[in-house]
Design goal:
about 350 residues, alpha/beta, 7-stranded mixed sheet, 6-stranded parallel sheet, 11 helices, globular
């Protein structure tokens, strides 16, 4: 088969490699689309892989073309996405259903060969079927949707509260939609990009706040009758938004860091004291899994994609690029601010 193989730092070669074999309990998927995740960028551009050569890709959609002995969850012809985590199922965390915290895991497209290829083979439990009404490009975004929903579950999310979404990226847009599906009083998206704020409005945000404006905090608080936000979800992983979260939180709020920071983060005593004075709960959220594996995050994404309540918009996608041009696709990330939205590597004819 053909695959986009990372052979060295900054070098992705489209080459012929052996087609993966299907073993007992495994499923072979013909890949339609494979998304470039933010975590893939340093893997290619900054010596971030576990080994060379490797096929990356863990956000994908396609069709089941072969099943191994004993497989009952899916059949040939089913449309599927894939949960990329392969937990050991034996450690203490796995036994408790906390698969994201497994210390002995593998990961499709990082620790083993991924979906930037004609075919990918995954364990049966990792194949997530979706309805034929759901387009393949939308289904390649299962994982960011599940990451968003896991954040809500981590915070025992309840409807009726003001909700702040900090960061209008893909995960932020899904977090906003999940908050509405489960009954927010008002959900507000914060970002510095007019395009992303417009997208948030199209997808159903009640209000948006441009944080480039000097008086944005005054505007943000007025939207809550100056009470603050009962749930604050930081999805950007940026120092300013993490500081912002502490300021926007209401008394007794839930503050959740879904975004992953990539630079040193510090707080002044006054900033940190917000947590003491407001007695809010600060929670982390990592990946997107629960018991039974892969969890209700994946099951509910499939359901709400099919009903149309979890909306998809062309604005999610920056470009669709043929898999054969993966090298060129990754080079686009070297220009700061150029890529707005998801790049999908495509095996489609169009």
């Amino acid at each position: 088969m053909r695959a986009a193989v990372v052979t060295a730092n900054e070098k992705v070669e489209y080459q012929e490699i052996p087609e993966p074999k299907v073993e007992k309990g495994y499923v072979k998927i013909k890949v339609r689309y494979s998304g470039i995740c933010g975590s893939d960028i340093p893997r290619v551009l900054n010596h971030g892989v576990h080994f060379y050569p490797i096929v990356l890709g863990h956000e994908f959609s396609g069709d089941v073309v072969e099943v191994g002995e004993g497989v009952t969850k899916v059949k040939v012809g089913d449309r599927v996405s894939g949960a990329p985590l392969v937990p050991c199922m034996k450690c203490n965390d796995c036994q408790k259903g906390n698969y994201s915290l497994c210390k002995h895991y593998s990961f499709i497209g990082s620790r083993e060969q991924g979906s930037n290829a004609d075919y990918v083979v995954v364990p049966e439990q990792n194949a997530v079927p979706f309805d034929k009404s759901v387009p393949y490009d939308q289904a390649a975004m299962f994982e960011p949707s599940t990451v968003a929903l896991h954040g809500l579950f981590q915070n025992d999310y309840q409807g009726g509260e003001y909700v702040a979404i900090l960061g209008g990226g893909t995960v932020g847009m899904f977090t906003m939609q999940w908050a509405k599906i489960f009954g927010s009083r008002k959900v507000v998206v914060f970002d510095i990009s007019e395009e992303r704020l417009e997208l948030a409005k199209r997808l159903g945000a009640d209000e948006v706040v441009d944080t480039r404006k000097e008086d944005y905090m005054k505007t943000a608080m007025e939207l809550t009758e100056n009470k603050g936000y009962g749930f604050v979800f930081e999805t950007a992983g940026q120092v300013p938004t993490m500081h912002m979260a502490f300021e926007l939180a209401a008394n007794k709020a839930h503050v959740c860091f879904i975004g992953t920071p990539h630079e040193e983060l510090s707080f002044t005593p006054a900033q940190w004291e917000n947590m003491n004075r407001k007695e809010f709960k600060l929670t982390g959220s990592w990946m997107s899994y629960s018991a039974p594996y892969p969890g209700r995050e994946w099951e509910l994404t499939a359901h709400y994609f099919a009903t149309g309540q979890l909306k998809f918009d062309p604005g999610f996608i920056y470009k669709k690029i043929p898999m054969s041009q993966a090298q060129e696709a990754f080079q686009l990330f070297k220009t700061p601010g150029l890529v707005k939205g998801k790049i999908l590597l495509s095996n489609e004819e169009d």
